From TrEMBL:
The lineage of its organism: Eukaryota, Fungi, Dikarya, Basidiomycota, Agaricomycotina. Pfam families: Pkinase_fungal. Gene3D superfamilies: Transferase(Phosphotransferase) domain 1. This is Other 1 kinase. InterPro entries: Kinase-like_dom_sf, Pkinase_fungal, Prot_kinase_dom.
Length: 332
């Protein structure tokens, strides 16, 4: 497990009557040498502002400001182990050289709370584009923990939706990562991490891992949510019963569950088995993403079997899991 992983996180809300703004307090205990999340967000916002400037007026930009697809930080505080009370708290837990950090963020809403499908699609696309623009920036920024709980949105003053990618605790840059540094280090949330990250040791994080995580996130949302709510178990898709196999610490078992989903050619045939709100996404989004992912992994298998793995483009799984391919799917 990566040392910078947050060991404990608590959130509580507050409302400022004067500004009519909700706040969330986040608390974490990272190691002293862990990059400050606020610094990460500031750097990422700078990168995305440059992207916004480049896209201004182009058909690709669509008037979006991707720098706004980040959480807004209003204040932060750090307490190190020189504080006696903090040191006394840490020692029984054997946390080592850590600091206590507090962050005051704006209150965001999860994309799963959206009851309008077009708004959900807008938020999902925003986050997808942000992942790409950060990955191809000169800093090579990867989030490394795409999961259901950090896909958020805010509603703008004009009533439109802006997708927001939250929780940048374990984000990395190409400058901070290398194969040697990354040996035996794994980040992500088990049900949503790429198949390749279940290897031991895991590879260095790349852009397509984030896209694969988005596929798994979308899959589980479509199984269990509708009209902005988590459905009771009896109203979810029957495949939801396999959640315990995905949400475990058994890497081999989780990997087998994911490869099983990729190979399942019938699960998306009958969209009526899915909760009502997301049925329009089953064939054009989920089914095509599954097919694209399966073709990519099959292509790599064929390359390995024929001795052509050295020539194979593993970054995009032979071009199948490229930004352009995924963008075409999500345009529908």
């Amino acid at each position: 497990m990566i040392e910078c992983t947050v060991l404990k996180q608590l959130s509580s809300g507050a409302y400022d009557r004067r500004s009519k703004r909700d706040y969330v307090l986040k608390q974490s205990y990272p190691t002293k040498n862990c990059i400050h999340e606020v610094d990460v967000i500031i750097n990422i916002r700078r990168v995305l502002k440059a992207v916004d400037d480049d896209l201004a007026g182009s058909s690709y930009g669509g008037g979006k400001k991707y720098a706004d697809s980040l959480p807004r930080v209003f204040d932060h505080l750090e307490i190190d182990d020189r504080d006696k009370l903090f040191r006394a708290f840490l020692e029984p837990n054997n946390y080592g050289e850590r600091v206590l950090r507090f962050f005051v963020f704006e209150r965001l809403e999860p994309v799963t709370s959206l009851a309008d499908l077009e708004e959900f699609k807008t938020a999902f696309r925003d986050i997808f584009h942000v992942i790409h623009y950060l990955a191809v920036s000169k800093d090579g920024i990867k989030h490394r923990d795409i999961n259901i709980s950090n896909l958020m949105y805010r509603r703008l003053e004009d009533g439109k939706i802006q997708g927001v990618l939250n929780d940048w605790d374990v984000a990395s840059t190409s400058h901070a990562e290398s194969d040697s540094e990354h040996t035996n280090m794994r980040t992500g949330t088990m049900p949503f991490m790429s198949i390749d990250l279940h290897e031991d040791p895991p590879p260095v994080h790349i852009e397509r891992f984030e896209y694969e995580s988005l596929f798994y996130v979308l899959y589980w949302i479509c199984l269990s949510y509708s009209d902005g709510k988590l459905l009771p178990e009896e109203k979810r898709h029957s495949a939801f019963k396999r959640w315990p196999y995905w949400n475990s610490n058994d890497h081999e078992g989780v990997l087998n569950s994911k490869t099983g989903l990729q190979a399942n050619e019938t699960i998306f045939e009958n969209s009526d088995k899915f909760p009502a709100m997301y049925r329009p996404l089953i064939r054009p989004w989920l089914n095509l993403l599954q097919y694209t992912l399966r073709k990519g992994y099959n292509a790599r298998y064929d390359a390995r079997k024929t001795g052509k793995l050295a020539e194979f483009d593993d970054i995009t799984l032979g071009g199948h899991m490229s930004y352009e391919n995924i963008r075409k799917i999500l345009q529908d």
